[in-house]
Design brief:
- By secondary structure, the protein is of the alpha+beta class.
- Helix content is 51%, strand content 14%.
- The strands form two sheets. Strands 1, 2, 3, 4, 5, 6, 7 and 10 form an eight-stranded mixed beta sheet that branches. Strands 8-9 form a two-stranded antiparallel ribbon.
- The longest helix has 40 residues, at 183-222.
- Mean pLDDT is 79; it is low at 1-28, 30-37 and 39-71.
Amino acid sequence: MDEPTGEPRAGAAEDADATADAAATAPVLGPYLDEDADADADADDDEYDDDAHGFPVEASQPTVPARGLGPSRRVKELEALLLGGERTLKRREVAAGVGLSLYSARKLWRALGMPNYTDDDLAFTQADLRHLKVVPALVREGVITEDAALSVTRAIGQMTDRMVVWQVEALVEDMVSTQGMTDAEARLALLDRIPELIEPLEEMLVYSWRRQLTAGVQRLVLRVQAGLESSAEGRDGSEDDAPLPLARAVGFADLVSYTSLSRRMNEKTLAQLVQRFENRSSEIITMGGGRLVKTIGDEVLYIAETPAAGAQISLALSKEFEDDEILPECRVAMVWGRVLSRLGDIYGPTVNLAARLTSIADPGQVLVDDITAKALSGDDRFVLEPQEPEMVRGFGEIHPVALRHGAGPGIVLD
């Protein structure tokens, strides 16, 4: 049984390797681990074994500064407001209060993206005790497995981390541009504005999550039959991606000459270009019924549930950037195939082929492969123009087809 404030037993460091395997097979978010495994986890705290424990090595991650080097009074007040009180608890106290071994608690904290705390750091509040019980309870009640719990927790940690950085930078940029502040002045001034933003942003976060989960349920259940009916379009089952579970239209849009343009732009102009590209791409993909998977600098990756929906989005993206007076043209490619969805991303040959096709497309052009062209043939909304065969790395000779608008208005933008 864990001792909340105890010290590692003598000799733990010497036999850490011998007990690491046993610790790795113990319940991750279940009841307390045996004290030997927990003590050994402490001894190995700074060099966590990626292979044995399934977490990235974090040797370069800084520990929390000593309490004598604490933040300013204003930041401390904000911390108390955000965390629900002052930091008065150490990690062992929190782990014991949640009903976990320190080893298991550390796995949960790392999944959330928290830094390495030592036994001496007052890092947690009473509110941590309440919130950190939620996920372990789901495991103990058999609602989800331990692996799923850590994966879901890691998704929350990574997405909220990116969201906070995005929001802070957006607010700072707005204050710089509208109030004539320097970047440093805006960041200090933002500290005074955060208290009035906490509740509205939190409310919008929960609202958005519920709406997104609703959309996910619709994709999961209500649209299953439509997806199954369209999954075989243009295919005979012998394709390399046939074993993968999801049939999706996968597309890339890549800005032309972005690298050379970015070298000639100052920070403000480059930020405006990137934001304009991402905002317009997101709007078009959403209006077309697709999903923006991710942005990669000057490129967006998106998916749709049918070949026609993917084609409409691809054509709308190409036209939007061709007509835009600020953004350069883009190269677009879309492939109808099967993918594996994990960690909020998608994987498989379909994704790779779409990326390769994008690289050989001309500015303003939309390319599809021959399987996708078969799936779209007969639909008068699209015009398909076979191109010369191309040798593509990893795929050999492929037969790209240029996709153009046919009948109908396509996606109508506001």
